Amino acid sequence: MTPPDDAVRAVEALLFAAAEPLSVDSIRAYVGGVDVRAALAQLERDYAGRGIALVRRGERWHFETAADLAHLLRRDRDEVRRLSRAGIEVLAIIAYHEPVTRAEIEAIRGVATAKGTLDVLMETGWVRPAGRRELPGRPLLYATTPDFLTHFGLSSRRDLPGIDDLRAAGLLDPVDLALEEALEVAKAADSD
C-alpha cells in the first residue's frame, strides 16, 4: 500500500485535531491550495470498513467511531430523554419546513405550541433560532442544527424520509391516512 500524499495527510491531521466538524472552506483555510474534496474522497475510501470513519454531516466533515463499534466505547448509558408527542410534531415540522415561525408551526399542527416545547428542542441542540421573518412583529424563525443531522444519522435534510417511506414503515397515524385518502378523493372530484 502506498502512503498517502502530503495533501491527504494534511487534511487527515487537521480533521483529527479539530474540536468540531469542519467545512471544506475551513479545511482549505488551514491547508492552502490543496484539492480538499479529492483529499476527503481519498480519506473516505481509506477509512471505509475501519474502526473510525470520515463522515459528512451537512456541509461539515469529521472523524467518528464506526457506528457498529460505538457501543464498545460507551461506559455509561446515555440518559434517554423522550420527547412528548408535541415535541416530535414540532421537530418534524421544523425539519421539513425550515426556516419556520412559531405561528407557521401552530398553523400546520392546528393547535398552540407551548414555549417549553421549543425550549426543550433548543436545549437538546436540535433546533436553533435562524433569524427573523420580514413580517410585522418580525417573528423568530426556527431551523434544525448539525447536531440534529448527527443524532439522526443524516447527511443532509434531503435524507429525511418522504411520505411513501413513512407509509411503508407503518409510521403514519390512521387518522393521517384517512385524511390523505379524503384529500385524494376531493382532488379527483374537483378534476372531473
TrEMBL record:
Domain of life, per lineage: Bacteria
Q: Which Gene3D superfamilies match?
A: Winged helix-like DNA-binding domain superfamily/Winged helix DNA-binding domain (1.10.10.10)
Keyword check for Cell division: yes
What InterPro entries would the database entry show?
ScpB_csome_segregation (IPR005234), WH-like_DNA-bd_sf (IPR036388), WH_DNA-bd_sf (IPR036390)
State the protein's name: SMC-Scp complex subunit ScpB
- Pfam hit, one: SMC_ScpB
| Keywords in alphabetical order | Cell cycle, Cell division, Chromosome partition, Cytoplasm
Record has Cell cycle as a keyword: yes
